[in-house]
Specification:
Homodimer, forms a heterotetramer with a Cas2 homodimer. This is CRISPR-associated endonuclease Cas1. Keywords: Antiviral defense, DNA-binding, Endonuclease, Hydrolase, Magnesium, Manganese, Metal-binding, Nuclease. Pfam families: Cas_Cas1 (PF01867). GO terms for molecular function: DNA binding; DNA endonuclease activity; hydrolase activity; metal ion binding. It is built from ten helices and ten strands. Strand 7 and strand 8 form a beta hairpin. Helix 2 crosses helix 3, helix 3 packs antiparallel against helix 4 and helix 4 runs antiparallel to helix 5. By secondary structure, the protein is an alpha/beta fold. 33% of the residues are buried. A four-stranded mixed sheet has the order 1-5-7-8, sandwiched between helices. 49% of the residues lie in helices and 15% in strands. It has two domains: 79 residues, CRISPR-associated endonuclease Cas1, N-terminal domain (Ribosomal Protein L15, Chain: K, domain 2); 242 residues, Four Helix Bundle (Hemerythrin (Met), subunit A), CATH 1.20.120.920.
């Protein structure tokens, strides 16, 4: 089975016959070590270290439809090397653009994205509420749930994308207010006040940014495997230097694939203050912390669940791909788009 390849060290990536070879020095910088990976076992590559790569290796990746995602020193997404598009469809791209240009068609999809993301946020809150015996906690979460439901009720009357984005921002702010109730840690660094992105100002913001970057890249991978164009979106405004459709679909899956992972890692003490760079005021994961997060994120993607319509088990990663195909069916007029909503 194909799996992502995560490169955390500095080194060199090259082709050798039908394999990819990663060469790196040992900890004492004395000996060169090599990791040989059969090309048929790689789904995509995520690079977090500084690597050298030549055109021969890039051509080999392109020939095998393998994308390469690059992240900077702090774990922020920098960019992607994509093979030449193999699933391109001019007709679907035209239809996708038509749905973006028509305000009514676009807002219909945007509303469904927000409703799906909101549903999944509520599922998270209800999950943790049901697992707690603390009456004060239950009351606080109930108040937050009620507030989010009230905001979601207003979506149906929105006539402009800006109104929907305003509601999205309010829902996320309300939701984040619940994080200090959900996260159980005796380490002071995990007290959470507000969402701050670049740069993140505390460990929680660092985890959110890192998790969101990983999810954005995975969603981008799955979009690329279909005929959709990742630059044409419906909720977020298309812009230069970003694949905004990936931002759209990431909103739906963040509560399941990023938020729940963060709660679990902290509450089970898999991630602690020692896994952040103390010299940078605990605002960035260190190498050990990244390895732990990536390892658990990868396990999460491969987790399977019985799909009620397909009547078979599918992985969380497959759920993302299915979301892309649902959008294609919608813009082709075959089936109305219904966003992914956690059913368990």
């Amino acid at each position: 089975m194909k799996k992502p390849l995560y490169i955390m060290r500095h080194g060199r990536l090259r082709r050798k016959e039908n394999t990819i070879v990663f060469e790196f020095s040992d900890e004492k910088e004395e000996n060169i070590q090599r990791k040989i990976i059969p090309i048929e076992s790689i789904d995509s590559i995520f690079v977090f270290g500084e690597i050298d790569i030549n055109s021969k290796a890039l051509n080999f990746l392109a020939k095998n439809d393998i994308s390469l995602h690059v992240f900077d020193y702090y774990g922020h997404y920098s960019g992607t090397f994509f093979p030449r598009e193999g699933s391109i469809s001019g007709y679907i791209i035209v239809r996708q653009v038509e749905f973006y240009l028509d305000p009514n068609l676009r807002i219909e999809i945007a509303k469904e994205i927000i409703n799906s993301a909101g549903h999944n946020i509520l599922k998270n809150l209800k999950y943790y509420q049901s697992r707690s015996d603390d009456l004060e906690f239950q009351d606080e979460i109930e108040f937050i749930i009620s507030d989010i439901k009230s905001s979601l009720d207003k979506v149906r009357n929105c006539e402009k994308i800006e109104e929907i984005l305003g509601i999205e921002g309010r829902i996320n702010k309300i939701y984040l207010d619940a994080w200090n109730f959900i996260i159980k840690s005796d380490e002071e660094v995990f007290k959470f006040e507000k969402r701050e992105r670049r740069p993140p100002t505390n460990p929680i913001n660092a985890l959110i940014s890192f998790g969101n970057s990983l999810l954005y890249s995975v969603v981008l991978d799955e979009i690329y495997k279909t005929q959709l164009n990742p630059a044409v979106s419906f909720l977020h405004e298309p812009a230069t230097k970003r694949f905004s459709l990936s931002l759209d679909l990431s909103e739906i899956f963040k509560p399941l694939l990023v938020d729940r992972l963060i709660f679990s890692l902290i509450n089970h003490r898999q991630i602690k203050a020692e896994h952040f760079n103390e010299d940078l005021n605990y605002t960035y994961l260190n190498d050990k912390g990244r390895k732990i997060f990536i390892g658990e994120f990868d396990k999460k993607l491969e987790t399977t669940i019985k799909h009620p319509k397909l009547k078979r088990s599918v992985s969380y990663r497959t759920l993302i791909k299915l979301e892309c195909y649902k959008l294609i069916k919608h813009i082709m007029g075959e089936e109305k788009y219904e966003g992914f909503k956690i059913w368990w």
